[in-house]
Amino acid sequence: MSPQELLAHYDTARLWASGVGIEPGFDVAAAYQSALAVRQLRQIRGEMPRGYKIGFTNRNLWPRYQVFAPIWGTVWDSTLQFCEGAGSVDLSGACQPRLEPEAVFGLHATPLANASMDQLFDCIEWVAPGFEIVQSHLPNWKFTAADTVADGGLHARLLVGRKVLVREVATSAVELEKRLNAAKVSLRQDGREVEHGQGANVLDGPLHALHHFLQELRQCPGAPDLQAGDVVTTGTWTDAWPVQSGQTWTAQFDAPLSRLELTFR
After folding, report:
1. pTM of the predicted model, to two decimals?
2. Scanning 16, 72, 171, 223, which has the fewest C-beta atoms within 10 Å of its C-beta?
3. How far apart are the first and last CA of the chain?
4. DSSP SS3 for 244
5. CATH topology of domain 3-264
């Protein structure tokens, strides 16, 4: 599919007839170039990039979805919302939406080339709980890795909860990662617990996921670098759960993150 066709499916929430990953020569590298072309089309029509999402950082889920390495996609001003602990999201236009509880970082500076973990830590302003609403334009969430990249990294929406300054949480990368790795989350739908998760599920920790992503981003031809003010959501601590309008979901995170509630409309 052309970038124009991909964007049309995104706008109308229509399923693809078949995966692009089965097209000859269409691998993950080609999919990123297609996704960047879609990104340019969205910018031309007035949408503004606000950061990135990292997907498939939870190795526990790789066999289930048959994707065996992290991917990334763009977060937009049209898909990003902030709240102080409770918010609502409109699911209209989302295709087969699912929900993921995550840790989200906010940057105040662009990391140095080949940044170490501590240099990356110095570029982070805040950390917050998040709910990413992901989507797939292939039936029953059956896809290749290239499909997920071309499909915008499966990103649909992102709700970010109460921010806490990282310097109030930790004084080093090691300390921050230790706290986030140990943190657990209880995910509930309409008051019923559906799953437990932990920060350590995410590629050895959310900060490690961010560090890995930075390296991958800078190896992708044409990909814009991280900028001050960007948000990056680092991957789900649990499985991705199907959602629908009328439901209320809560994620009770351990410190340093806080409780987040989301109602779908």
Report:
1. 0.97
2. 171
3. 31
4. coil
5. Fumarylacetoacetate hydrolase; domain 2 (3.90.850)
